[in-house]
Amino acid sequence: KAKYGATKKKAKKYKNKKTVKNKTYYTTMKKTSAYPKHKVTTFNQSSAIVIRTKYQGHKKQSWLDFYDKPVKCQRPKSMSVFAYCSEHKLQQQSEFEQNYRD
Known about the structure:
This protein is an all-alpha fold. It has a domain at about 55-100. Helix content is about 35%, strand content about 0%. The chain is built from 3 helices and no strands. It has helices at about 15-20, 60-65, 80-100.
């Protein structure tokens, strides 16, 4: 019966001693850990994180109704497209501010 975690015996591989002498062996470099060994500082968890948007309430809903993000701005692939999207959004915000009435 096979038990979980049991390993099968591997077949032994025999090497020809003449071919082993011709091969060059390289020393392996010591692998360093990706994680730092020193203690990592943590954030102060007792204080609340507050994220504020440019618009709130009815003005925010009006902005979301007003602004249509261009298709190429959904996932910009280059810096030039990203810059275009940022400028486009700023232009739309200034236009929205001029047209918005409380």
